[in-house]
Amino acid sequence: MQADRDVPQRIVFTGAECTGKTTLIQAISKKIGEPFSKEYVREYADQVGRPLEAQDLDPIARGQLRGEDEATRQAQSFVLHDTNLLSSILYAEHYFDVHIPWVDTLFLERDYTRYFFCMPDIPWEADPGQRVSASERDKLHSRFQDILARYDITPVPLSGTLGQRIQTVITNLKELQ
Question: Is the model's pLDDT at 1 over the cut of 50?
Answer without folding.
Answer: no
